[in-house]
Amino acid sequence: MKVLIMAGGYATRLWPITKDNPKALLPLGNKTILEYILEKVRELDVDVYISTNRFFAEKFRKYDVELIVEDTVHEEEKLGTIAAMRNALNILGEDDYLIVAGDNVFSFSLKDFVDNFSGKTLIAVYDVGDFELAKRYGVVVLEKDRVIDFEEKPANPKSTLISTGVYLFPRDVMKLLNEYLEDGNKDSPGYFLQWLLKRGEEIRAYRFDGYWYDIGSADSYLEAMKTLLKESYIEEIQISPYAKIIPPVVIKKGTKIMGRSIIGPYAYIGEECIIENSDISDSIIFPRTVIRNSTIWRSIIDEKCEIRNLELRKSLVGGHAKIQRGD
């Protein structure tokens, strides 16, 4: 068996914070999204690969994982998940493949997932508990643990059980990727699963409770941080005696917390930021950003920004932005 972590997308829904950084390497508490996935994967004694694109490849080099690099540098060129899987198959050869989306964080054990593999396609399914929310995903209908119906992004979902970004495809199914793509089908795991069912292929489901986040939006990113950030991680910083820290928070080295600032709960502050007389909670602040006399709530602010005299709520601010209200 081989593990393939899919990180070849350009995460346009999270632009501008993902214009220069792959989504899998965004901070999530004191780790990156990828590090959470790798911790899960390393429960298994198998070869692990990351499928990414040429634009982001160098950013993954520091991880001790072999890369499969598709020759794309723009969103409109990307292969898509199924084509990227075929590309990896052509390079790595036939095997059973555990496919993990590089923007998913989840509570279940991959070892337990693999132990439930019977030789038939296995997918991890989660109950989102809401029919409107289910419309965004691939909706599953089960008979015990067998998938009897699957519909990608249905207008009228038949259940609230959805397929997450974890799949185990046996080698015989991996061999069908060429046929699927040559038939002109949509390049998406959900539509591939629909196609497999119509062919009479058996698909089994691994149902889990706990948490699951598909980090495709600012809201899901911030919610994932709130779930996973259980304790504070504070590096070497300068902090005013009048400032207050409300855990849990992450504050990286070189940051200065000045004046009567209040940081937390659920705040990530990157390296070498300056926070002065400001309140920051439920937010992610990237490195070398300056925030003065401001209130930041449920927002994401990219690196090297300057925010002064503002109240920002549910905002997404791109790198190098300078925003202020008159003194």
Automatic annotation (TrEMBL):
One of its GO terms (molecular function) is transferase activity. Residues 2-230 form the Nucleotidyl transferase domain. Pfam families: GMPPB_C, NTP_transferase. Keywords: Transferase. Residues 245-309 form the Mannose-1-phosphate guanyltransferase C-terminal domain. Belongs to the transferase hexapeptide repeat family. This is 327aa long hypothetical glucose-1 phosphate transferase. It comes from Pyrococcus horikoshii (strain ATCC 700860 / DSM 12428 / JCM 9974 / NBRC 100139 / OT-3).
